[in-house]
Design the sequence.
């Protein structure tokens, strides 16, 4: 495929902006001297270029996308229309409160729904993504300890099965990370947790269901141990799709939570964002929430900053247009649909696991939640075929590969999350493809190393890319 | 009820049975959820709505907002012309719904679009390397500060002429890492170089300036770069991307890191988001850039292709030792910027920038004639500060403009107002705004 710069022809262009009326003057600032190498193209060329790129990009509507831990559910078409309403897109973030009542209403209702679903008392919509929410939540924990003079609480406990963002966020918030080992069931090792929790514990970060797709049955003990040590409990909402409307993080004993609107609440991932990572907390932490929050005053909605707020984690109030899409989804499925969504996400995962079980060894033999982890360690030893090979072969069957090599505690891991928006027959077709791929791998391991066979490019050289990085087009002299 | 669950009740029963569950409750119980912890009763949120009902609710909310016919307010968010092609391309389902391109074989389109975006950001800023973008302009500054800090140099200097929202975000991130932040005073609308010299020391990691700055004025970035470099610190320039078409680039000024708010590149105002933080750096800081970076390589057949690269910097590999925790960024906004830049081309972007400049200068003269006082005398781009006789008059002006469907400048206190004009403001609308100001200030 040609790069857009390789399609450029000197002198071609578009005609969107009138010639500026410069009057008698010329700019007095120091001018740019360097030539500006932007593509020179007609509009039809731009359109065809990106149409070609879209043809080599895989979206959710292109087929089954069981990417574990990412909740690739269908993104309702309606939400796009609503987020594109001029009454939302045309609003300047620094307009007066009286002129943005509709935006504030959307935010207030979203905050209320998310607080109720997570079992929290207050929510901020400012964080722009899940990891950004983690950082925000940890800053609340830090601010709370500091406000009580507990500056010696410098450690955050993180299970070894956690997403990489958890320890990275803890480090950004200035905490030292203490890894807590998992037990043989993939859950938190209570003894290790008891040993680690103490006077220097600021808090614990946990997803439940955890990253191996299991609900930690000891959750009440876990949060109690941390609280008794004087720490707070942070809930990573990455896996909320399994339990929303069924059990609430607030009721499990968590004090702070982030949710991913781009996972659980069906807003599109955009090829890696924009997401939105609202943070909810219990009342005693709400005074530290960043940005501003919506309050009601004399019958009108107003923006108010909390007294002890941790500042801002980004400009303005958050990824508002993403919030509009999430609210459209929440209002659409409503209080009846929230638990039904979770239950069907869990059912679809168990059904697919049931169809694969005989052939694909599961990392943990238990009823799973919304996702499950397979281990191909045996296959690798036996035939040399790796989880990567199997993943790539699935591409040839029109399936987006599951998440590979995560969580780190499982060797040769493949993690599949079908979501509730897939049909029974999609799961059955997918299971047949999974089994066929496995059969092919056993009968011809050499061939398995060369998959995929149907794509235009195959097995890019990642080592070469990283060793001598070429990260921009070279225009030459 | 729109649960977007396709399976019928009959199918759900068949599946439950196949898995050996009696019911959904049984499934959850056997998955280990303690019964006493289960939510009793319904969630206190609205009942499910049909698409028509939901549309009605949100359309009603949208109608409660004011969308002004003329906007003369910027301060970090700008109304620009967005060619139709931008929405057309970015609305394509593949770009809109894909996940981060981990699987290169089925993500070449997305990966190549990011590679092209990185190239365009390098071209705009005159820097050597760009990442795939971060959340917004303010977080780009905060991440840039972290790129400069080390054990010895822990202090971050921020110019007093930088947008206070950016300063607030830098402070929040610094509170996390335990970094010190100090504000260099502003003098006559720009960073005070004498004050800066007095504040630089061996512990200073970097200076953050904004170009044009919060007051719209040009900073003498080249001179500030020399001063900062003389003490061994780095210069971070937060730039308006439209202005970069015509103003001296961070690369030409000697900046080490160039960042900025990408919203003007094809993103609507949208009440504050989603926006885009662009980030570029000189060659030797490449491996300290946070977030996704796409690199060129070849596949097993020797064909050119693209992959996510230098991932050893990132959280999913380095965990607590990663330079940043960023995972999802603003990929679709980066695509928006790339499509906008490709559609505009160098000539379209130049015309946009010069129209901003010309209109802002016209508006400033008109407002001055109408009785507002010019505050600064430096070269400026498309924003400038004017002073009303008092805070009351400034508020009266905004109210009168509001009545004429015009959003006036942002109040900065003491009667000062920050005004902005872009290519979207025609002469008629500027004349009308000035007439209204004149009417309000009439003795």
Sequence:
């Amino acid at each position: 495929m040609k790069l857009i710069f390789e399609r450029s022809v000197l002198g071609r262009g578009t005609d969107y902006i009138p010639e500026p009326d410069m009057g008698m003057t010329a700019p007095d600032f120091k001018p740019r001297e360097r030539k500006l190498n932007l593509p020179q193209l007609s509009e039809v060329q731009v359109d065809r270029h990106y149409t070609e790129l879209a043809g080599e990009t895989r979206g959710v509507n292109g087929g089954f996308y069981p990417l574990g831990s990412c909740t690739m559910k269908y993104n309702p078409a309606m939400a796009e229309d609503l987020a594109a309403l001029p009454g939302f897109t045309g609003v300047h973030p620094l307009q007066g409160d009286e002129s943005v009542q509709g935006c504030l209403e959307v935010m207030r209702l979203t905050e209320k729904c998310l607080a109720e679903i997570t079992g929290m008392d207050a929510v901020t919509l400012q964080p722009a993504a899940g990891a950004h929410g983690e950082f925000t939540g940890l800053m609340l924990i830090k601010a709370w300890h500091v406000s009580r003079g507990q500056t010696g609480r410098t450690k955050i406990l993180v299970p070894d099965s956690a997403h990489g963002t958890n320890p990275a966020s803890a480090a950004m918030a200035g905490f030292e990370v203490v890894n807590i080992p998992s037990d043989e069931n993939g859950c938190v090792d209570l003894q290790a947790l008891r040993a680690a929790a103490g006077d220097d514990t600021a808090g614990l970060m946990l997803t439940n269901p955890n990253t191996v797709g299991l609900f930690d049955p000891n959750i009440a003990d876990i949060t109690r141990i941390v609280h008794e040590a004087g720490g707070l409990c942070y809930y990573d909402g990455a896996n909320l799709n399994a339990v929303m409307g069924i059990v609430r993080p607030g009721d499990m004993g968590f004090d702070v939570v982030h949710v991913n609107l781009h996972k659980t609440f069906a807003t599109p991932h955009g090829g890696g964002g924009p997401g939105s990572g609202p943070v909810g907390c219990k009342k005693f932490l709400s005074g530290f929430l960043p940005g501003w929050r919506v309050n009601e005053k004399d019958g009108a909605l107003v923006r108010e900053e909390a007294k002890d707020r941790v500042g801002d984690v980004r400009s303005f109030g958050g990824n508002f247009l993403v919030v509009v899409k999430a609210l459209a989804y929440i209002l659409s499925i409503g209080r009846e649909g929230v638990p039904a969504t979770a239950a069907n996400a869990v059912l679809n995962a168990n059904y697919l696991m049931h169809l694969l079980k005989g052939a694909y060894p599961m990392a943990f033999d238990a009823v799973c939640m919304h996702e499950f982890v397979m281990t191909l360690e045996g296959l690798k030893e036996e035939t040399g075929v790796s989880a990567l090979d199997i993943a790539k072969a699935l591409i040839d069957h029109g399936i987006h590969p599951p998440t590979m090599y995560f969580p780190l505690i499982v060797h040769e891991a493949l993690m599949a999350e079908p979501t509730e928006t897939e049909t029974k027959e999609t799961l059955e077709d997918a299971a047949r493809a999974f089994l066929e791929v496995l059969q092919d791998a056993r009968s011809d391991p050499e061939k398995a190393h060369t998959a995929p066979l149907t794509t235009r490019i195959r097995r890019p050289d990642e080592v070469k890319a990283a060793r001598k990085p070429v990260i921009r087009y070279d225009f030459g002299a | 009820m729109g649960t977007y669950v396709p399976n019928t009740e009959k199918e759900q029963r068949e599946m439950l049975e196949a898995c050996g569950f009696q019911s959904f409750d049984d499934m959850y119980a056997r998955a280990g959820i303690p019964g006493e912890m289960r939510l009793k009763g319904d969630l206190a949120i609205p009942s499910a709505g049909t698409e028509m009902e939901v549309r009605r609710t949100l359309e009603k909310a949208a109608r409660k907002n004011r969308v002004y016919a003329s906007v003369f307010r910027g301060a970090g968010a700008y109304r620009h012309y967005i060619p139709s092609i931008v929405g057309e391309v970015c609305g394509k389902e593949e770009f809109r719904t894909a996940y981060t391109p981990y699987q290169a074989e089925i993500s070449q389109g997305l990966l190549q679009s990011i590679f092209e975006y990185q190239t365009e950001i390098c071209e705009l800023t005159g820097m050597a390397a760009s990442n795939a973008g971060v959340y917004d302009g303010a977080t780009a500054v905060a991440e840039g500060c972290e790129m400069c800090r080390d054990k010895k140099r822990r202090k971050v200097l921020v110019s007093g002429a930088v947008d206070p929202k950016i300063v607030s975000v830098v402070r929040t991130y610094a509170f996390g890492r335990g970094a010190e932040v100090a504000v260099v005073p502003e003098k006559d609308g720009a960073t005070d170089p004498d004050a800066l010299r007095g504040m630089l020391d061996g512990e200073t990691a970097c200076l953050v300036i904004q170009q044009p700055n919060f007051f719209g004025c040009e900073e003498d970035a080249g001179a500030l770069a020399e001063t900062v470099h003389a003490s061994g610190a780095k210069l971070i320039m937060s730039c308006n991307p439209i202005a970069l078409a015509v103003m001296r680039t961070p690369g030409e000024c000697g900046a080490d890191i160039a960042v900025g708010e990408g919203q003007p590149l094809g993103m609507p105002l949208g009440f504050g988001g989603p926006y885009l933080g662009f980030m570029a750096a000189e060659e030797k800081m490449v491996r300290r850039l946070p977030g996704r970076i796409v690199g060129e390589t070849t596949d097993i057949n020797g064909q050119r292709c693209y992959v996510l690269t230098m991932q050893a910097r990132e959280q999913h590999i380095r965990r607590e030792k990663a330079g940043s925790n960023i995972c999802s960024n603003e990929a679709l906004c980066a695509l928006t910027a790339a499509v906008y830049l490709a559609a505009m081309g160098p000539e379209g972007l130049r015309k946009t920038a010069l129209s901003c400049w010309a209109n802002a200068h016209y508006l400033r003269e008109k407002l001055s004639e109408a009785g507002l006082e010019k505050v600064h005398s430096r070269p400026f781009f498309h924003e400038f500060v004017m002073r009303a006789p008092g805070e009351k008059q400034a508020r009266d002006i905004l109210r009168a403009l509001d009545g004429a469907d015009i959003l006036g400048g942002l109040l900065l206190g003491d009667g000062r107002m920050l005004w902005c004009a872009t290519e979207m403001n025609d002469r008629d609308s500027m004349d009308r705004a000035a007439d209204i100001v004149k009417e309000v200030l009439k003795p």
